[in-house]
Amino acid sequence: MIEITADLECPLMNSEFNGRPERSAEGEAAFWRSLEALLPVFERESIALNLEAHPDDFCEENTPAVDLVRAVNRPWVNYPVLRPAPVGGGSDGGHRAMMRYAGDKLQHVHIADMFHHKGSSGLRYILSPPGTPARIHQHLDIGQGEVDWAAFFDSLRELKFDGVATACVFAWEERARESSAFMLERITKELAA
């Protein structure tokens, strides 16, 4: 995939940490083995890499994910904030804290709305059986969930964000074109402000 990316003259790839959260030590060990083999290929092809914390990967939380990215110790390996994933905590999903903590490693934001899944006394979503290891998040159009978008975009402006912003909505296959057009217009308006 790195070579195809280079053939397409694309300067950036995104990936997740993968692995299983209940086997995080094994996942992290596999991550470092993979990087040992892949970093020279990324360098040879001059492709940057963003590594993302994602629900149900061996690394699901912002802080340890940013720490792993920093431990890679390459200026071209960075961190994307996934906004809708609840990987930071707090009533706003922790996006301000996530972005500040990532600092100069924040080079990409995935943008979609979500509901606060622990709302309604933890009964916003009822999963069976109780204690299931399922991870919950949605990828909705801005305004269809509960993310504080004014605060989110204010945070990006405060940090003078100048990276990649992508709409990351998957919820509406039947209106994908309309959703994409709406998201492009809203994100462009917010980031130009």
Automatic annotation (TrEMBL):
InterPro entries the UniProt entry points to: IolE/XylAMocC-like, Xyl_isomerase-like_sf, Xyl_isomerase-like_TIM-brl
Domain Xylose isomerase-like TIM barrel: 1-184
Any one Pfam family match given in the protein's UniProt record, by short name: AP_endonuc_2
Taxonomy, superkingdom: Bacteria
PANTHER family reported for this sequence: HYDROXYPYRUVATE ISOMERASE, XYLOSE ISOMERASE-LIKE TIM BARREL DOMAIN-CONTAINING PROTEIN
Name of the protein in question: Xylose isomerase-like TIM barrel domain-containing protein
Species of the source: Streptomyces roseochromogenus subsp. oscitans DS 12.976
